[in-house]
Each structure stands twice: as C-alpha cells, then as structure tokens.
C-alpha cells in the first residue's frame, strides 16, 4: 500500500523513518524484478519541469513512470519560462488540472514550495539549490545493498562543497542514524537551516575541514565543486577546494569494505578522477542505476492510490 499518498516530497524530512523504510523496501523489490508487469500508475501522468540540465533525473523519472504504466512529459524552461513567461503559482494551477504529479528541478527551493503550495497534486524535488532528496533515496538504496538495512552508526563521510548533496546527507543522517561527517574547506559549510534540523532532531553531525576524518569511513561521497548556477565562481571555488579531490589513494584509507559514491556528473580533474570512479570500491554506476528503482518506489508511494481522472 502507498504510504505517502498525495503528499509532496521536497525534502527527505518530508518522510518519516518508517516511510523511508517502506520506500526502500519497495525500491529493492522493484530492482529484484518483483513488480515486472505491474502497472500501478496506469493512466496517470507526471510533468517533469527543468530549469537546469539533467541526464539521470530526466531519464529515470521518465523511464520509471513508463515502467509503472504511466506517462511523463518533460518541460524545459525555454518552453514554460517558470516565473518569467508565467508566474510560478499559475504554472502550478495549470499543471494540476492535467497531470497527477509534478517533478521540478529548479534553482530555488522556494520555487518548489510555491509550486507545492498552489498545486493540489504531489510535487517532487528533482534538485534545488538547497536539497536533492530523490538522489539520496538512490544513494541509501546503494548503501543498503552493501551494508544491509540497519545503518545506525555507519560512518558516511561527505567531502567537498557543503551544497545541496551535503544538506540532504544531513537529513538522511537524521532519518537513518548513520554517523554523518561533512568535510569542507572553510566557508563552504552546509546550510545553517539544515544544520538546525539536526540540532532539533538531537542528531550529531560532524563538520570539519580536516581530511583525516575520511580514514575508516564506510561510505565516502563527493559531488562537484561548481554546481549548476555557480559558474561565475568557478575560479575562486577551484582554488578553495584544492586538496579535497577524491583519489584512489584516498579510497585505500576507507574501511576494508568501504565504498565510494558520487551522484554524477563528475568533473574529472576537480572533485575526483576516473581512477576513483573506476576503483573497485566505487559504486557510482550502481548508484546511478538505483535512481530508477528508488524513484519508481517514490512515485508509487506518492501516487499509487490514484485512479485516472479521465
Ligand atoms: N545526479 C543527478 O541528479 O544527475 P543529473 O543532473 O544528470 O540529473
Ligand atoms: N551539486 C550539483 C549536483 C548535480 C546533480 C548541482 O547542483 O549542480
């Protein structure tokens, strides 16, 4: 049974630990092929709204919807001009009349909040400046494949920019009990509001600038130094992040069964090198595959109780 029917998914904290467990179980089951031929979203549609580029998010939401019997329509911002051609609230009030869910990849989390406020259908965060919660579902599916479903105390170390990925990692630490450490250069720490979420939850997150924190990690995770929309800061950022590159030598210092994850795309020569993503400890392509399974599970749990309106 769908456990988050009709809800928005703008943040991992929009789900409880029990709901996350249900979504993960569904994702594993879908990956094992146990839903083959099952079409719980038959007759339903989702709009995929993109203000920025995407390979994985676009492909996996579209293919995932197809595999569950539904239909996806991709809308690029040159077509709809979110907030420029038309105000965000009007876009929401149009889309809700035609489709059963909206996924948005946007610059500002605020835009997603506005879409969610004005659309009666579920709105899914497909990455904003602040969070990337759908990615983290795939990441934790990958982590569970390695370490099982009880992840309490597992050391997850994120290295690099305290960006949307780092923020969502903190949320997953709150939900799952992993021991999260964020290693950044000075001035590139995660969002203060997200850190407050951890404080409010009574969960300890380690913030450090010291690369020594990587040693013995169960999971080492990195992401680009220059996120989409930050191109003007590229030179300053490349200088600030010197030394924070994930190398094969760094992977040798993880726990013996430790793994390396990266949400991709990789900017080789910056946050990592091909020898790391191709290292035996790397699971980055399994992780990319899991975007499909995890998001199918998410869409099932948000939309699976709906009947076609037509
Ligand atoms: N990891 C991720 O979201 O990839 P895309 O930007 O290609 O969608
Ligand atoms: N932090 C990156 C992630 C891309 C999937 C960005 O926001 O561009």
Automatic annotation (TrEMBL):
Domain of life: Bacteria
Any Pfam family hit: OTCace_N
Reaction(s) this enzyme catalyzes, per UniProt: carbamoyl phosphate + L-ornithine = L-citrulline + phosphate + H(+)
Location of the protein in the cell: Cytoplasm
Binding of L-ornithine, residues: 164, 223, 227-228
Aspartate/ornithine carbamoyltransferase carbamoyl-P binding domain residues: 7-145
Keyword Cytoplasm: yes
Transmembrane segments: none
InterPro entries: Asp/Orn_carbamoyltranf_P-bd, Asp/Orn_carbamoylTrfase, Asp/Orn_carbamoylTrfase_sf, Asp_carbamoyltransf_Asp/Orn-bd, Orn/put_carbamltrans, OTCase_ArgI
All residue ranges annotated as the Aspartate/ornithine carbamoyltransferase Asp/Orn-binding domain in the record: 153-302
Residues involved in carbamoyl phosphate binding: 105, 132-135, 263-264, 291
EC number, UniProt record: 2.1.3.3
Pathway where this protein functions: Amino-acid biosynthesis; L-arginine biosynthesis; L-arginine from L-ornithine and carbamoyl phosphate: step 1/3
Keywords attached to this entry: Cytoplasm, Transferase
Family: Belongs to the aspartate/ornithine carbamoyltransferase superfamily. OTCase family.
Protein known as: Ornithine carbamoyltransferase
Taxonomic placement: Bacteria, Thermotogati, Deinococcota, Deinococci, Deinococcales
């Amino acid at each position: 049974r769908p456990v988050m029917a009709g809800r928005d998914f703008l943040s991992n904290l929009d789900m409880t630990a029990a709901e996350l467990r249900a979504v993960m179980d569904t994702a594993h089951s879908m990956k094992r092929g146990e839903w083959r031929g099952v079409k719980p979203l038959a007759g339903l549609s989702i709009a995929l709204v993109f203000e920025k580029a995407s390979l994985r998010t676009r492909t996996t939401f579209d293919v995932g919807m197809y595999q569950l019997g539904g239909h996806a329509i991709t809308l690029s911002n040159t077509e709809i001009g979110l907030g420029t051609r038309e105000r965000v609230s009007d876009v929401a009030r149009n889309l809700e009349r035609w489709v059963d869910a909206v996924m948005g990849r946007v610059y500002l989390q605020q835009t997603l909040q506005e879409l969610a406020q004005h659309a009666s259908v579920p709105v899914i965060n497909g990455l904003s400046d602040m969070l990337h919660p759908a990615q983290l579902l795939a990441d934790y599916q990958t982590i569970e494949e390695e370490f099982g479903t009880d992840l309490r105390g597992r050391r997850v170390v994120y290295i690099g920019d305290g960006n949307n990925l780092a923020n969502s990692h903190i949320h997953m630490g709150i939900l799952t009990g992993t021991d999260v450490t964020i290693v950044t250069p000075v001035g590139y720490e995660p969002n203060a509001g997200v850190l407050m979420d951890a404080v409010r939850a009574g969960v300890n997150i380690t913030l450090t600038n010291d690369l020594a924190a990587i040693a013995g990690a169960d999971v080492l995770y990195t992401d680009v130094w220059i996120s989409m929309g930050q191109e003007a800061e590229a030179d300053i950022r490349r200088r600030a992040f010197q030394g924070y590159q994930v190398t094969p030598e760094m992977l040798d210092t993880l726990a013996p069964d430790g793994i390396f994850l990266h949400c991709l795309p990789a900017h080789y020569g910056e946050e990592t090198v091909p020898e790391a993503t191709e290292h035996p400890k790397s699971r980055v392509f399994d992780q990319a595959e899991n975007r499909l399974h995890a998001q199918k599970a998410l869409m099932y749990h948000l939309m699976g109780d709906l009947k076609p309106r037509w």
